[in-house]
Request: fold
Amino acid sequence: MPYINTQNDIAGIRGLMQFRPDVAIALNQLAQVLLADDASLSKRDRELIASFVSSRNECTFCMTSHGAIAAHLPEGNHELVEAIWKDYKTAPIDDKLKALLQIADKVAKGGLHVTPADIAAAKEIGASDLDIHDTVLIAATFCMFNRYVDGLGATTPDDLGFYEIVGKQRAAEGYLTKSVLLKD
Amino acid sequence: MPHIVLNPDLYGITSLLDFRPETAAPLCRLTQLLLRGESTMTEAEREMIAAHVSSLNECTFCSSAHTAATCLLPEGKESGIEPMQSALESLHISGKMKSLLQLASLVQKNGNQVTQFDIDVARKSGATDLEIHDTVLIASLFCLYNRYVDGLATLTPTDPEFYAKLGTRITTRGYLMPADGYHATDYKPT
Reply:
């Protein structure tokens, strides 16, 4: 149960969004552009960054939801997601994504933690300015979403089946469609 | 020097909004809704939350800009806020506003720092659920902006005149993207 009366019983961030639908449109458009539109980084890698930052912020709802979305995208699976939560440095991912996750990790702590050496390491391994920009903005955006969800005590389901439904739907449709979990 | 190649004539968040208009568009709409949209909180109160969180995150660009904006708004002037001021606890503000700033401070640390008790304190001071919602989301949004601006090491002017001009711009024109994009001349101190 959220801390405020949202006048609905929808789980997670969508229960908060239902309370403030005009704001929800902008939030979902931001998620769509950052995570689900085609750009240089793959959708899977974008979702992995989102899930990783959420795990660092200890936001169970976002970490599990975006982990499930990553798992349902091409070349994604749950073992990979869990390996990144545990220690991205030893996870079975390429060095470029590792360098980007290092930047994301610093962003989660605070923007001033990112060093020129972190950026140089990512560039040396082939990260473009757009890759670095999007990594920083995805990480920063999840520092917002995580605080929004936990700061208002959004309902966080225990049932992993919930996250599987979310994962399948968002991997296939992106962020602009109505949740399949909502009744008409 | 910024970590990526940005328009060298632009500063802080403006240089990032200019770099990637696709992400700038929803960010600007979100900010306009939260800080300038219809609300029972004044624009000064909402700017004060933005300034407070930015100051806790040690983001000089955002804290200077939103403090400058607060100074220019009527309730901001009444609060006794000074340009470039960082600690807002001593301001002449309502008990409700003090409790909302306290809530924003907890959100700045992490969402899981907030408890039902803190929400109830805000309610008892007169805050509505919508005001509590918006306070948490504004605080969260500035945890985004502060990380975005400093995580990419954007240019941060030190001249208070720059922020006075930026404050004037955001209190008169708001946050929506200008139709013709961002131009250095709109921001450079005269």
About this structure: Chain A has a mean pLDDT of 97. The CA atoms of residues 50 and 142 of chain A lie 6 Å apart. Chain A has nine helices and no strands. Residues 129-151 of chain A form the longest helix (23 residues).
